[in-house]
Design a protein that fits this description.
273 residues; alpha/beta; Spore Coat Polysaccharide Biosynthesis Protein SpsA, Chain A; three-stranded mixed beta sheet; 14 helices
Length: 273
């Protein structure tokens, strides 16, 4: 089956700052041959599309989707959106969606290549905070800020009843919890049992990318995630200098949170500022 991807860019605020507008302009320049969907909360829709900035973006591939304000008002609401069947149902005419947050950056057009690799979910690998200057210690794959998602699999898993999505083995939850501080782990445990007892339809205590990385593979046998050594060719986030060295001084398809993790590396290697 021929892949039919689209690119989805969530917009939380407007006007954009200079780095976010540069990221968006760069993405459109490189991936203009694919449908690019700007996901706008209703409160910003009219202001954004009537702006001079939006007029300058006009290409045949650009579309504007207006969504409920509650989907894009906070990190919690964004996580809820990315766990909802309603969200993925917007893209049933596409095989894959590439979610590109405005703090991500695209370096080349590798979209079709990655669509054809047969993975359900791809994001930058996660590394242990104790990594040394010479040794990579991977702890998972699936940063959601710049991630490729196979729509049929995401539609299926997101359609499952909340309680089924919550019934995850303790061993899997422990893997996911290693990304959280002790206080966040305690908060998660309380929220997890609250959601389980009350069968919450709109809330999941893990961030959405942790769920799609650790829990979704247990809910669908065909759900596939690449190993970290493959995922690092898709995207960098944490420890970009180490990943760049491991990847034989080659940039990946894109990166996420480049201002948060070693901004000087990105300035000297890719000119990001």
């Amino acid at each position: 089956m021929t892949a039919r991807p689209c690119v989805v860019v969530p917009i939380y605020y407007f006007p954009l700052n200079s780095s976010d507008s540069d990221s968006l302009l760069n993405l459109i320049s490189i991936l203009h041959q694919y449908p690019i969907i700007l996901l706008l909360p209703k409160r910003l829709h009219d202001t954004f599309i009537c702006s001079q900035f939006a007029q300058s973006l006009r290409t045949t591939s650009l579309k504007f989707y207006s969504v409920d304000d509650s989907w894009l008002e906070s990190l919690t609401s964004y996580n809820r959106m990315c766990m909802s069947h309603s969200f993925y149902s917007l893209f049933v005419d596409h095989s894959h969606i590439l979610i590109a947050q405005l703090d991500s950056f695209v370096f080349s057009d590798q979209l079709m290549y990655w669509c054809n690799q047969g993975f359900s979910f791809i994001g930058a690998p996660w590394l242990s905070k104790s990594c040394s200057s010479d040794v990579l210690e991977f702890v998972g794959v699936g940063n959601g800020g710049f991630s490729l998602r196979y729509v049929p699999h995401f539609c299926y898993v997101s359609s499952l009843k909340s309680r089924k999505r919550l019934l995850i083995p303790i061993s899997t939850l422990r893997l996911a919890l290693q990304h959280l501080s002790l206080s966040s782990q305690l908060k998660f445990i309380l929220q997890y049992f609250f959601a389980l007892i009350f069968n919450s339809k709109h809330y999941y205590p893990l961030t959405e990318d942790l769920f799609w990385s650790y829990c979704a593979p247990l809910l669908l046998v065909d759900y596939k995630i690449p190993p970290p050594t493959v995922a690092l060719r898709f995207s960098f986030e944490m420890f970009p200098t180490l990943l760049y060295k491991y990847n034989l001084s080659q940039l990946p398809f894109g990166c996420h949170a480049w201002k948060k993790y070693e901004p000087l590396f990105w300035y000297y290697i890719a000119g990001l500022k």
